Write the structure tokens for this entry.
Amino acid sequence: MQKPSVVGWSAQIHRAAIAGPRRTVYLFGMRNRSVPVDTVLPHLNYSNLDEAIDWLSRTFGFQEHFRYGDPVAGAQMRLGRAWIMVGSSRPGRTSPAELGGWTQMLTIFVDDVDGHYAHAKAAGAKIVEELHETEYGERQYGVEDLEGHRWLFARHARDMGPEEWGAKVTNPLEDWPGGN
């Protein structure tokens, strides 16, 4: 029996397809060939970690899984199947606000991006990209948190191959149905 190729130990399997020599498992009800969904555990730093944990929970809906240190030095949080680590700023590890600019944008997939957008906006989050559907098949919005980290919250709106919206595939993903 073939073992599923699942990236992310917390994933619930919604759809599976057989492709090539191994089984590929999709982690969401719809796939979009332009936006693969893998698990990366980003580590974000905040100057006021307790306030950040509260804000991320209240504004974005993250749930705290664990925290460590006294006073708190870090925590692991999740939103659906997306996981993050948050930690206290210290020399060499600062927040974008402390640096004076943003450093990255994290994409988190949510089932109800319209509701998530409405909630974040009502909670006073700084919207940096209004809710819209992209040319590559995502419904998304961009937001900045209390210390300048940039986030995209999205859901797959339609399945689009990269070549369908003008991108050039340079390295086809052979294990996806359709070859890319």
Notes: The longest helix spans residues 49-60. Confidence is low (pLDDT under 50) at residues 1-27. The two ends are 25 Å apart (CA to CA).
